[in-house]
Amino acid sequence: MGALNEKVLNLPAVPGVYLFKDAAGRVLYVGKALSLVHRVRGYLSGDVQHPRLADLMSRAADLDSILTDTESEALLLEATLIRQHRPHFNILLKDDKSFPYVRISVQEEIPRLSVTRRVLDDGARYLGPYTDVKRLRRTLREIRRVFPVRTCRNFEDYRRSNRPCLYFHIRRCAGPCTTRSRVTPPEYRALVDGLVWFLTGRDEDLLKRLRVDMGQAANERRYEQAARLRDQLRLLEQMRVPQKVVTLQGTDTDVLGLARHGDRAAVTALVMRGGRVVGKEARVLEHAAGRPDAGLLSSFVSLRYLADTAPPRRLVMGAEPEDGEALTCALEKRAGHRVEITVPSRGRELLMIRSAERNAAHTMEDLAARASGRRARFSSDVLDLQRMLALTSPPWRVVCFDVSNLGPDQAVAAVVASENGRARKGLYRRMRMRRAGPDDFAMIGEAVERYWTRVESGELPRPDLVLVDGGPGQLGAARAALARVSTRPVEAIALAKREETVVREGAAPLQLPRRSPALRTLQRLRDEAHRFGLAYHRTLRSRARLGSDVDRVPGVGPARRAALLRAFGSVAALRDSSADEIAARARLPASLAERVFRALQSGPGAGDRDAAARRNLGHARRRMGGRT
């Protein structure tokens, strides 16, 4: 660290890029700064809280820097160096390879259609990049039915021999190389222009132009040309499959959506041209754990669009990126035109961001499913819960704890579970409390500790989120119990009944919208835990009442009391039965069944039964208007 301190002393307070290297000279991290000395000094101050940064500084042995004139230049240089060195501690675009482009050589007399992975400054029109190569080639095959543009490389050979190729005979090329074709250079150029319009999303303009040209050809009695235009119109109306483009015009927009899963994140860009979505690109970010959404979006824009030939005019995203002004300036310098970064709070663009986020979550889910062998998709409620609670991963499995008691006796705890938003009853558990007294905090702690002991032993699967019915006190008791037995970190929250407030650890309470899918998911789980625990509590109270009523009958011991309980289940059912029925169902002697029957009819419950009968009679009289 001494060598690093010496190099920091010599850093100027100017914009630039800094590179941390290990002892072997490998680049560990690339960063940019408005003031190099102030930014790098923060790494060496010793106040590094994030474990990843602490690991970086423990391995860093050397420091290099490159000075720039402005922060935007530093941002451009940072993106280039990250793509070149792919440092271990930087956010990286996974599989940062080159993608194919559609190239149309509009600078030539007879333009050619081709697919390439290199974008050159040669005057040609490049459309792309395309992430799905198979779909691209399939689309081009269909497009050539409408726009039969040549794809051959040896065009001059065909022209000299005046011999068309197979594509001319199957009507996939207009045949500008042969006199057998009746297409003129202006007509061929019109085909190329139509192809460019179609690929750039200008479908409506293209259809209008073809209709006008068809009508004009028909009026001038050029019926063959009018028939060709008519066929093109029909095919276009059937296809209407525009793709995304690099050469942007108008208010072309990319909408960015972010999703997280552990150390990875995915960003999906919905490409909008002419006011509608014409393409999608999803990229995975490595080393994303602990980074804020603003930092991830800023890194994605730098790595993706600063390497592009022409960034879009508008970028719409859900969070303001870090160093937004410098990023915008760098994008404008790269694009040669104005670039706007927008963070909407409502409206159609916010809905588009939510759609992009769902697509990004789908990408992360595919990766996780392939890694774990799980095929099920995350439900929209689970994804909404992750977004609302700012969790690092979607909570696939959630458990909820609730306690039920009425005084110091028969206190119970209930644990219910859900997977992907649906109840998983095989993981339900209920338990009697061992601690005496109606202490909710202690009982929550006991229930969590006993349940989590089974999780750690492998008897139960590990949940992704713990929900506690209650407030900060119950949440604190649950966290203390988890600290005693859990070997891995787990998120825990509480849901307070009165205001339906989500209590979080180390953060302010969260008031979710009443119609939020995330809140409904938590409420369903909490209410199910309450129902499950209350049913068990009532069962125990019924058993205790049955025991107290029949224990005073001579000849009834623990075995016969258990037999009565199995046969009737409750005191009310036993009291409503005759002596003969008691003897038959519980298999008791007739004399003993008679004694049990008389004890129940004259016992404490008999008064309750008479009171219930009187209440029912009163209700009947009121319904009849007081008549008897």
Written overview of the protein:
By secondary structure, this protein is α+β, with helices and mostly antiparallel strands. It folds into 5 domains: about 1-90, GIY-YIG endonuclease (3-Layer(aba) Sandwich), CATH 3.40.1440.10; about 100-240, no CATH class; about 255-365, Nucleotidyltransferase, domain 5 (2-Layer Sandwich), CATH 3.30.420; about 385-525, Nucleotidyltransferase, domain 5, CATH 3.30.420; about 550-625, DNA polymerase, domain 1 (Orthogonal Bundle), CATH 1.10.150. Helix content is about 45%, strand content about 15%. The protein has 22 helices and 19 strands. Strands 13, 14, 15, 16, 17, 18 and 19 form a 7-stranded mixed β-sheet that branches. A hairpin with a 2-residue loop joins β14 and β15 (about 420-425). It is elongated. It starts with a helix and ends in a 5-residue tail after the last helix.
The helix-and-strand class reads: alpha+beta
Q: Per CATH, which architecture of the largest domain?
A: 2-Layer Sandwich
Radius of gyration: 37 Å
Major sheet details: 7 strands, mixed
